[in-house]
Write a structure and sequence with these properties.
Chain A is mainly alpha-helical. In chain A, 70% of the residues lie in helices and 0% in strands. Chain A contains 10 helices and no strands. The chains are: A mainly alpha, B mainly alpha. Chain A binds chain B through residues 2, 26, 54, 56-57, 94, 97-99, 127, 135-137, 139-140, 143-144, 146-147, 150, 154, 232, 235-236, 239-242, 248-249, and chain B through 48, 51-52, 54-56, 59-60, 63-64, 67-68, 70-72, 74-75, 77-78, 82.
Chain lengths: 249, 82
C-alpha cells in the first residue's frame, strides 16, 4: 500500500514538473497575465480612480470587493464549522490524551508576553490601517491580532484568554465584521451605485469620489480584520481543547 | 547572479524540508518543519516582489497555522504510525 502511494506521488510529481515547462518565464512581459488589458488598466488607473498607492489592496478591496467579501464569509463559516463539529462530537474521545497539562504560568514567560502583546496589537492596527500604502491589510492585521490572543492563551491558560475574549463574543465580532463589509456595500447600493461601488459614498461624506473609495477600502478592511481576528482565536480555542473550551494547552 | 544563487538555494531547501515534513514520525516536529517550509516560501515571495503574499504567508502560514496544527496534535496520538 505504501509503495503504491509512493509511486503515485512520484508520478504526479513528475507530471507537475513536466507541466511547469509551459509556464511563462518569471517577469515575462509577453505572458498572458502581463499582456491582458485588465492588468494594464489596473496599473494605469488605480492611482487615478482611488488614490491608493498599493495596487494589491485596491484590487482586493475595491475592484474585486465582492470576491473578498465572500472570502471573509468563507473564513467565518470555516470557524463556525470547526466550532460546531468539535462541540457536538462524542465526549469520550479525548480520554486517552497523552499529555495532561497541569502547570503554573511561568513568571518569565508571562511577563515577557505582557510586554510583547501591546506591541503586537499596535503593529496589527498599523498593518490594518496602513494596508493602502504599504503591504498589509485586513487579513494580515487580523491574523496578527488573533495571534496576540493565542499568545495569551499559550502563556497563561485558555481560561485567561477566554475571560478577555469569550467564545460567544468571538462569533459576534466575526459576524459584525461581515456586517460592516456588507453594510458599506449596501450603503453604496442605496446611494444609487452598484453593490460595493464606493465612489457613491461621496454623496453623504464630504470627500471626493476618489477619496471616498480610499476610505471605504479602509472600512471594509476593518470588517475583514474583525472577522479574521475572532475566527483565528476561536479556531485555536476549539482545536486545542477538542471543543470543550477548558484545559487547553 | 546573486539572486539566482539565492533562488536555487531556497528551492533546494524547500524540497528537502517538504520531504522531511513527511519523513519525521513526531507530528509536533512535522508541524515545526512545515513552519520552516512556509517561511522559505515567504522568503521566495518577498524576493519575487510579491510582498503582500509574503506577508500573508508569514502570518498565516508560518505563524497561526503552526500553532493550530500543534494544538491539534496534542489532542491526537503524537507519533505517526508510518
Amino acid at each position: 500500500m505504501k509503495k503504491t502511494a509512493f509511486i503515485l506521488v512520484l508520478c504526479i510529481g513528475l507530471l507537475l514538473a513536466w507541466a511547469v515547462q509551459d509556464f511563462p518565464a518569471w517577469g515575462d512581459p509577453k505572458s498572458p497575465a502581463s499582456s491582458s488589458p485588465v492588468a494594464s488598466h489596473f496599473i494605469a488607473n488605480t492611482g487615478v480612480d482611488t488614490e491608493v498607492p498599493n495596487m494589491v489592496t485596491a484590487v482586493l478591496a475595491d475592484y474585486r470587493g465582492f470576491d473578498t467579501m465572500f472570502e471573509t464569509v468563507v473564513v467565518f463559516i470555516a470557524g463556525l464549522a470547526v466550532f460546531s463539529i468539535l462541540r457536538g462530537g462524542p465526549k469520550s474521545r479525548t480520554r486517552d490524551r497523552e499529555f495532561v497539562v497541569d502547570f503554573e504560568p511561568d513568571l518569565i514567560v508571562t511577563n515577557t508576553v505582557r510586554l510583547i502583546v501591546p506591541v503586537i496589537q499596535i503593529f496589527a492596527f498599523y498593518v490594518l490601517a496602513h494596508g493602502h500604502v504599504s503591504p498589509g491589510g485586513g487579513f494580515q492585521g487580523g491574523v496578527a491580532m488573533g495571534a496576540s490572543f493565542i499568545l495569551i492563551a499559550l502563556s497563561w491558560d485558555l481560561k485567561t484568554a477566554l475571560a478577555r475574549f469569550p467564545i460567544e463574543r468571538c462569533f459576534t465580532v466575526a459576524a459584525l465584521g461581515i456586517v460592516i463589509y456588507a453594510g458599506i456595500g449596501l450603503l453604496s447600493l442605496f446611494l444609487g451605485g452598484e453593490f460595493l461601488d464606493y465612489a457613491h459614498l461621496a454623496k453623504i461624506f464630504p470627500v471626493s469620489p476618489e477619496m471616498a473609495r480610499y476610505h471605504a477600502m479602509l472600512g471594509v478592511e476593518i470588517g475583514v480584520g474583525f472577522t479574521v481576528t475572532a475566527i483565528m482565536f476561536a479556531l485555536y480555542a476549539s482545536l486545542s481543547t477538542d471543543g470543550r473550551m477548558r484545559d487547553g494547552l | 547572479m546573486g539572486l539566482e544563487l539565492f533562488n536555487t538555494l531556497i528551492l533546494c531547501l524547500l524540497v528537502v524540508v517538504a520531504v522531511l515534513s513527511l519523513w519525521v514520525r513526531d507530528l509536533v516536529v512535522a508541524a515545526v518543519v512545515f513552519a520552516i517550509y512556509s517561511f522559505l516560501m515567504c522568503l521566495l515571495w518577498a524576493e519575487m516582489g510579491a510582498v503582500d503574499v509574503a506577508f500573508t504567508e508569514a502570518t498565516v502560514g508560518a505563524g497561526v497555522s503552526t500553532v493550530v496544527l500543534i494544538a491539534t496534535v496534542f489532542n491526537l496520538k503524537r507519533k505517526a504510525k508510518d
